Structure formats: C-alpha cells, structure tokens
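User: My collaborator and I are trying to settle a disagreement about how two of our proteins should look. Neither of us wants to argue from intuition anymore, so we agreed to look at predicted structures for both before our next call. Could you fold the first one, then the second, and keep them clearly separated?

Assistant: That sounds like a sensible way to settle it. I'll keep them separate. The first protein:
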Amino acid sequence: MNLRTVAPSTLCVVVTLGSWACGGEGGSEQVANTALGERQYQGVTDWPHLPPEIEFGDMSGVDVERHGHVIVVHRGDRGFSSDAEGRISQPVVVTLEPGSGEVVQAWGEDTFGVPHGLTVDHEDNVWITDVALHQVFKFTHDGELLLTVGEAGVPGWDEGHFDQPTQVAVLPDGSFYVGDGYGNSRVAKFAADGRYEIEWGEPGTGPWQFDNPHGVVIGLDGNVIVSDR
C-alpha cells in the first residue's frame, strides 16, 4: 500500500466498488494504490463537483443512503471548538450523486454549532451530533428536523444532557445509541421518540470504562461496537 497524507478539508469516499474519490480545497488527488485480493483501488479525479457557493470546511461525517447518494457533513468556515458560539451560516449537509459527484441538495445553514458525527439510518433519516450544542439531531434526508435530544449549549451527564456527543447508531425499531463523548465517558440508549432507556460507561481504562467513546455501530450480530479515541 502506498499512502500519502491527505490535506484537511478533503473528502474521500468509495464512489464505485474499488474506487476511492478524494476532493477538497486543492482539488482531487489519489491517496492510495492498494491491491486487496483482486480489487484494485485508485484515485478518481475531479470528484465531487461543487458549485461556487459550496466550499467544504472540516469534514467530520460521511454515509451512504439506500439509493447510493453520498451524504456528508462539514463545518464550513468553522473548525473544531466545543465552546464555539453561534450557528454556522453555510449549508453544511451536502448530498452528492455517486457517479458524477454533482450536488443533489444542500441544507443545514444556521442550524449547527460544531457538527460531528453523521449516520444515515434504514429509512434514510440523517442523524447528526453537535459537540458545541451538546445535542443529537434526527432529520429527514432533505433536512426536515424530526427529533432533538439534549439541551442546546448546556453540557451534562444525565437523561436529558450530553457533553460533546460524537456518534449515533440506530436500530431497526428506531431506537438509538449515542457515544457521549469528548466530555462524558458513556454510551447511552434512547427509544425511537428520544426517551432515555439505559447507559453504561465511566471514565477509566478498565472493563466498562471509556476515555472518549468516539464511534458507535451495530454489528451484524446485534452487538454494540464502540471505538474509544
């Protein structure tokens, strides 16, 4: 594998099976040439195609919905700062056509403080965590707000507050797990309507302990898989 450093504000996604596409402020570039069995990976240039009014900032989340569209969240002209004030004025959630890289839609202006994780569930709803607002949001695929959990700008560790939540994992019944996160050291589970159910975790390095549970996914066997940063 021949790897190169990728500049900040760069998007790298699998556009088609066996192809990586990377694009950012400096254009697209090849980042890896890899032989994995019989699969060959190479850079796809000039992807995505962004209109002049959209310029990617720090890229913090990417997922793919049922029809293959790539959905990304970026931070516009704002970097990572948990004490950032105000909302990002740019549309920071961008849906891309997988083949051409054209923008299908963009939304989310004046909504987020510092967006972090993005998850697309089985109904194509878009879940985004915000480490400045200390909230978890659920939207339709075109940006209609369906659910908010947490109190805006107020960190905490209880049934109704987060401290810089990082990622959401959604179950088939609509219930969901939240990695919480930079400030807390737990994974919390909520019902589909946002009601708190259970949690586990505490600061430390032993069993059941975390130091920034950062990524959360549901395994094929139903187990919850957590990456600790």
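The second protein, kept apart from the first:
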Amino acid sequence: MLPLRFQLGEVTVKEEAAYALSLAGQDADFFLGMHASGTWGEGNAEMNERGLREGVLVLSKYRTLRGHEILVATFPARGETHVFCPPNSVIKYVPLPELAFWQEQADQPRPEEGGAMKGQQGNGSDRFVIGHLDMGGWVRIHASGTVPPELPVFLSHTLAEWLRQHPQFRLVSVVPISRDGATVELHAWYECHVFPASPAAPKPIK
C-alpha cells in the first residue's frame, strides 16, 4: 500500500458510483487509496499537484473493470471527498454474451481452478476457456485458447463471480496484465474476513 499524501476527510460515495462499482465487483476503498496516495489515474497530475499546494480541488479519474468512469474529488478546505460518476453517464448492466457459459472444469487438478467460463463449440475457431487460480491472498484470472475481443468483459465477470462464491473475501486491488496493448489477465488481491464462531448452545436443563 502506497503512503497517503493527504487526508480524505468525510467520504461520500454517490449512488451511481456505488452501482458502477458493484457491477464490476470492485470496492470504493481501492480507488480512494490510489487517490490519497497521489496516483491520479487519468486525472490532470499538474493541476492536482497545484491543488495540493494551494489546498483546493484535487480530482482523480479512474475506470472500473466494466469500463465505467469513476471520479474521486477531494476539497481539502472543506474536509470532504466525493466518489461519483460524470454527469449524464450511462451506468447499465451488460449481461454475459451468449458466447460463454459457466460449467465445472473437469480437467483441472485443483478445485479452486474449477468453475471456468468456456466458449461454445462452433467451428473450432471460437473455443476459449477462462479459469481462475487462487494463490492465497491473490487470485489469477486467465484465459487460454482463441480469445475474443471482449476478453476484458469475460475476465471481469469471472472475477466478480469468484468473489460472489467467496463472501469471506474482500477485494483490495486489481491489476490488469496486458499483452500487445490488450488485457489478457487480471490479478486481484483480497483480504480474508473470517466469520465469527457461532455461540455455544446452552447446556440442557436436567
């Protein structure tokens, strides 16, 4: 975790931003951490550095795994930070294309690598598999075979589904792995929140 360069103050996550983050299976804390550490994303670095010196607006711009733009704005003088989407932005759920479906991978030796996404069998040219490998503390989402142009969408859906299947994990950060300018893998770090033990049942009354 990078050191924080300034305090966020009171944080407000707007409704549309919370919805966009939920669609991507991501957490606002990840973007807030980057913002407070001076990793501005697509934001204007020069203006933000001046904003830090003068105590005025500091604005970062990011994108979720689903491609929705997320803005993080801090007003140091007011001690406020807002997470929101640009005005008039369209936040909508895009279902998985029919090219893929969920099924168990029988050829994988480890159970945590099961539940992969596979392309349908056509003429053989569109066959692909997206699997996941839990490395303990981080999970690797990767593809094999002939991958489609929409691969980042399949990768993000696979990660989101994996997180839904592991409610004891909380997403910390996601790093896309690119090849030739295209995202081909996702590496996601998570924290484990162990559920509290169930209270002991009362002893029977004799």
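Some points you might bring to the call about the second protein. Helices lie at 15-24, 28-36, 45-54, 151-165. The CA atoms of residues 124 and 146 lie 9 Å apart.
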